[in-house]
Amino acid sequence: QNNINDISREKSAELYEKAKTYFPGGVNSPVRAFKSVYGTPLFIQKGDGSHLWDADGNEFIDYCCSWGPLILGHNNAQVREKVIEVLQNGMSFGAPTALENELAELILTNNRFIEKLRFTSSGTEAVMSAIRLARGYTKRDKILKFEGCYHGHSDSLLVKAGSGLVTFGETSSAGIPKAFADETIVVSLNDTNALDAAFAEFKGQIAAVIIEPIPANNGLLLQEKAYLQYLREICTQNGTLLIFDEVISGFRVGFEGAAGYYNIQPDIITYGKIIGGGLPVGMYGSSAKIMDHISPVGTVYQAGTLSGNPVAMAAGIAQLNQLLQPGFYEALNNKTTAFANAIQQYADEKGYHFKVYQIRSIFWFAFTDAEAIRAAEEINPASMVDFKVMHRELLNRGIYLGPSGYEVGFISSAHTDDDLAKTKQAIFESLDIVFNS
Ligand code: PMP
Questions:
Q1: What residue ranges line ligand 1, CB within 6 angstroms?
Q2: What ipTM goes with this model?
Q3: pLDDT tens-place string over residues 388-398
Q4: What's the CATH code of the domain at 213?
Q5: What is the pTM of this model?
Q6: Cβ atoms within 10 A of the Cβ of 39, count?
């Protein structure tokens, strides 16, 4: 039983009916369809700072932040102004520009873990290219990934992936040739025995191990540092490259991402949307020695008409410069920790089976008593029913979370103390409804 009226979704519903005639499921990316939560998707009209407005004029405090990249909130003035300045000179040339150098320099001089990089237009492309590079470099075919880790939608990686696949109860995609899936070994997170067994069975065949070092696409499955160090060691011993997929954690948990947070040197790192400040950008980076296997210097081909697009580079430059300001991450992290702690304290006082897992400015709400959840199979799918109720109650109270209980939430520098106080109150009320009705 919800205590307040559902928000009006008349305009969104009308747009959704039309959209269904144009796009499969009415959307251009599956999780947007609100399939696992209440009602039709909200069609967004505008975002400003920490707030969103939908087509019906409902206003929300946004904790999805375009699935992470909007670490400065929506419509950040410096990003917007830089984009407008640059796009007045044309929007794409398919030729090099100084802006690519500028963004690369900003990244490389502030990141100890990579020496050279390539820009792409999405996280999927970055990861797909990193895998090809690892295979070309090692001259091996197999890759090893972890159950619940999502790495974009390229063929060899859509095996036991998280994100929209787990939300809809299918962990792997149709349409992947068996021969491709056979080259992907999948093991559980947080299980060194499974790793040992895979390396023994496929000795000398594994090109790369790919992991989200902060797995955030199947809940937030925080790993222990010792486990990540073990992974580093076993890769080194076997001549296998370690790829950190930092599409979520990169520039989010700190400018140097999870590699910096854990102080572990992977062989290749992939980054995504956060570099574009809301525009389509991804990248992968590594040592100069490994990166020089990429065409036109090396024999591993990878290209893109819109790679390093000037407008996207401009947004990235304006966004990353703000992240480098002294105290930026500290303030964001402290704000999120206080928010998560206050919610946990409320749930504990009431005796609710509810945990807030958090790392830096990423959080995840889980309906459980477990002190830690480190592997996908430890999540009880039945708990998603509680998330569905909570999501609806929060929308009714003006709080927007991504429409899936398997997805994490993000706090941006634009979230004010007032936003967070209102959100906490809405969460307390929503939890009372989940646990008392
Ligand atoms: N890797 C990770 C860890 C991701 O979270 C995502 C998407 N959120 C991707 C890769 C794919 O990125 P994109 O959706 O931009 O292609």
A1: 67, 122-124, 127, 150-152, 212, 217, 245, 247-248, 272-273
A2: 0.99
A3: 999 999 999 99
A4: 3.40.640.10
A5: 0.97
A6: 16
